[in-house]
Specification:
Helix content is 42%, strand content 34%. With 120 residues, the protein is α/β, with parallel strands linked by helices. The protein has a single domain, classed as 2-Layer Sandwich (Transcription Regulator spoIIAA), CATH 3.30.750. Helix 1 runs parallel beside helix 2.
């Protein structure tokens, strides 16, 4: 399940993921939230928190993630990924240098630090 993280600056989209994330989660929560932010901002920042109960993505979610990343490729200003899943952090760091934005990974215990970084 995806949920919007509240109380962030208007140019920051915060998403929290718990359980298994599906294509439906992307289509009903993430994609509409990104499109809404893009109506009022040329560049947006994203805080993506994969919480302690996160168990993975289904294939549709992975495809939607790729689509949204490519569709708004130049719209990302900063992206913070927060997770204790080391394989996800490793994968993200490997591909993060390909995005034309600042990208940083954090552990779940560093969520407050990630919020400060994304807001700075």
């Amino acid at each position: 399940m995806l949920k919007i993280i509240k109380h962030l600056p208007d140019n920051v989209l915060g998403i929290s993921a718990e359980g298994k994330i599906t294509g439906s989660d992307y289509e009903t929560v993430l994609i509409p939230a990104v499109e809404q932010k893009m109506k009022t901002h040329k560049k947006i920042r994203m805080l993506y928190h994969l919480g302690s109960q996160f168990t993975g993505f289904d294939l549709a979610a992975m495809l939607d993630d790729t689509k949204i990343g490519m569709k708004y490729f130049s719209a990302w200003d900063r992206v913070a990924l927060v997770t204790d899943h080391e394989w996800i952090n490793t994968f993200a760091r490997f591909f993060g240098h390909m995005f034309p934005c600042e990208f940083q990974t954090f552990k779940n215990a560093e969520l407050d630090e990630a919020k400060k970084w994304i807001e700075a």
